[in-house]
Amino acid sequence: MNYLSFNDAMRARFGTKVYRLSLQSGCTCPNRDGTIGTGGCTFCSEGGSGDFAAPLLPIGEQIEEARKRVDAKISASIAPQDRRYIAYFQSYTNTYGDPERLRRIYSEALQHPQIVALDLGTRPDCLLPEMIAMLRDLRAEYDKPVWIELGLQTIHEKTAGRINRGYKLEVFEDAYRRLKDEGFEVIVHVILGLPGEAREDMLETVRYLSLLTPALDGIKLQLLHILKGTELAREYGADPFPLFTLDSYCDLVVDSLKLLPPQTVVHRLTGDGPKRLLIAPQWSADKKHVLNTLNRKIREA
Q: Which residues pair with residue 280 across a beta bridge?
């Protein structure tokens, strides 16, 4: 079975392998500061889903710190000056705050000659017109792509309430339409394995995304991780709910990929949970084995 992987898409677009640098904007989240709610989504760690990000330093320093981590894994055959990166702001809600402050931060990242794209993780209820206008201006000024990652997780309202997502599906639909009208590339984040969802519920979310108009640019499929210190961990400890086995997860990913249009870039197949925080499923800690199993099942499909 074929699908458009992130690595293949980046090589075709930029002519080389591209690496994400996990950075921090210093934003918080309206689902934490009391604007919408407190405590955040039930699965979200204190790091705001950005547990692997560089420390909160000036952006230039963050880029250098993140590069040190990433470059340690890159072949020495690729000269440091030839490496290309994505400025990836993952933790918390990176379009929530003062647009001018964020303009300065994102401008500094885009000015870096080896940064080829800006990637912002956010919520669909945090995309005011002035924020979208600021990002549109940055995209034009630097002539580099600006990707917006929307944390949808599920289309099912019952599940959204259970995980304390804090917005309805129509909010996502409105944000998606406005972003696409402005020409932004949109990546949608889906969590597979949320409590109370059957296999068909998860496939229904992917199927819904596969039918979006205009077509979805990218998707991230994320295995549900139960992390220490989260509300989900307390829920699981009090009343454990079923979790995927490695094989059942891989089978669901294969079926999810079959639903996607061929032009949709698959940015992630599983995701990482920090080992120091991971409660379950423990098999997910062996990333190499997970990816090898996934790739084998995809080839065989």
A: 226
Q: What is the CATH number of the domain that holds 121?
A: 3.20.20.70
Range of the structural domain that residue 257 is part of = 4-300
Number of neighbouring beta carbons within 10 Å of residue 212? 17
Query: What's the number of domains the chain is made of?
Result: 1
N- to C-terminal Cα separation, the chain: 5
Question: Are 186 and 119 within 8 A, CB to CB?
Answer: no
Task: Give the model confidence (pLDDT) of 230-268 as tens digits.
Answer: 999 999 999 999 999 999 999 999 999 999 999 999 999
Alpha-helical runs (H) found in the chain: 6-14, 59-71, 99-111, 129-142, 157-162, 169-181, 199-210, 231-238, 246-259, 287-300
CA distances, 13 to each of 195, 224, 284 (Å): 37, 30, 31
Looking at residue 54, its pLDDT comes to 56
270: nearest Cα among 288, 279, 237: 288
Output the CA angle 9-187-143, nearest 5 degrees: 65
